[in-house]
Amino acid sequence: MRITIVQGGALPVPPVRGGAIEKVWFGLGKEFVKRGHEVTHISRAFSGFPSEQWLEGVHHVRVEGLEFSSNRYVVVWRDLGYVRRVVRVLPEADILVSNTPLLPLLIRNPRFGALYVHMGRYPKGQTRFYRHAARIQTVSRSVAEAIVRQDPKSAGMVRVIPYPLPSPACTLNVPATWQQRSNEILYVGRVHPEKGIHILIDAFRLLVQAGVDDWRLVIVGPWAAADGGGGEAYYESLRAGSAAIAERVNLAGPIFDQSLLTAHYRRAKLFVYPSLAEQGESFGLAPLEAMAQGCAPLVSALACFQDFIENGRSGFIFDHRSESPAEELYRSLKKIVRADEELMSVAVRSHEVARAYDPSNVAGMYLEDFAAIAPARGAPQSQLL
Fold first, then answer.
1. Do residues 153 and 269 both lie within one domain?
2. Nearest to 370, CA basis, from 159, 219, 59
3. In a shared domain, residues 27 and 118
4. Quick one: 254 exposed, middle or buried, by C-beta within 10 A (0-12, 13-18, 19+)?
């Protein structure tokens, strides 16, 4: 098949500035090529990247993109300009994967391929405008249910295929390497209020004040608004909140190198992802990456995480909706860090769960779905856009 992947206009590909969706589709494109398919990946132009490039068999095409803005109307206007530039470079294809909300509104010509709308974010009612698409695909049952709830007519178009790991699931022996790990609690992701980082710091401060002073907290991720973070004021509030325990907290900033992130996952014993984004999270790739490296996850009670995390078995879940979520998280942390053998057992089981999300397995799911909707070669095609 000829497959075109269109990325959003804010982050570059390869994912040198992060982005879960960028990371996923960059990897999937390479997997599709390995299986004999032709892949064109369209993304934003970025300093140091040529406008056209071949990487591991994938044809990368880049056009002028956009920067993050807190003004939603500015974002929509900039995104409209981006997708219009994308349309000008779209090749003929069998499948057109859209990772940006406005592109499906402009596509009607089947010569670009069967329109495959990837919903990597919680829907906001926009799917009723995508009924001409061949497929609306998302990554968790909770988001699929939200799509159908908002637009019942789309029910027959919706498919759930999870995100893959960004690299092959590792085969490390978790029990054998457990004693080499540090008493370290790790967070990886955007440093933004909706991710609940302030709750994590408050909970960790309570943990230290309770006498558990042999653990460290490491927070990895961008805080700058230009990179999707909460901005300087939020970052400074986190520094102030952790001042009393500063020697035990590392606000490490962004790390986009996958090998360095893997080293963090393999060093920590517990990964905490306290997201508060009820209508923001769609899957939770970072907890899955941690699981693949033998680091047990503790997550909030958002439904999307429950596709692959079972409380007390393949991870831990705390109630972020309680009156005092920081105290609730503190109680969970206190119980977990005092039971090292149980924590290791959960890490082992979480690692086994993550192995099912190997990129070769998940790529096969996508290709099977593509084949079900791809037009027959040589079929008559409309000349309308």
1. no
2. 159
3. yes
4. middle
If you ran DSSP here, which 8-state letter would residue 377 be given?
T
C-alpha span between 164 and 110 (Å, rounded)? 28
Which residues are 271's β-sheet partners? Answer: 186, 297
Q: 84-88, 293-297, 354-358 — which is least confidently predicted?
A: 354-358
Scanning the structure block, which residue is given the tokens 């075109």?
4
**How open is the CA angle 274-278-281, to the nearest 5 degrees?**
70
Would the pLDDT of 385 be above 50?
A: no
Contact assessment for residue 307 and residue 141, using Cβ atoms and an 8 Å cutoff: yes
Give me the domain span that covers residue 39: 2-164+358-373
Contact 316, 298 (CB under 8 A): yes
- Residues β-bridged to residue 281: none
pLDDT tens-place string over residues 32-73: 999 999 999 999 999 999 999 999 999 999 999 988 777 777
In contact, 299 and 274? CB cutoff 8 Å: yes
Alpha helices (H) in the chain, listed in sequence order: 20-34, 72-89, 103-106, 141-150, 174-177, 197-209, 232-241, 258-267, 285-292, 325-337, 340-354, 359-373
Residue 6 near residue 99, CB atoms below 8 Å: yes
Q: Does residue 144 sit within a domain?
A: yes
pTM for this predicted structure: 0.87
Helix (H, G, I), strand (E, B) or coil at 55: strand
Q: What angle do CA 369, 115, 89 make, to 5 degrees?
A: 125
Both tokens of 110, joined, read: 């089947």
In a domain, 306, yes or no: yes
Residues 351, 365: one domain?
no
Tokens matching residue 19: 């982005």
Percent of the chain past pLDDT 70, that is, above it, reads 96
Amino acid in the structure at residue 329: L
Residues 131-151 as b/e (b if ≥16 CB within 10 A, e otherwise) read eebbbbbbbbebbbebbbeeb
3-class DSSP assignment, residue 315: strand
Return all residues near 91 (Cβ < 8 A) that are at least 6 apart: 2, 4, 40, 112
Q: What whole-number distance in Å separates Cα of residue 380 and Cα of residue 378? A: 6
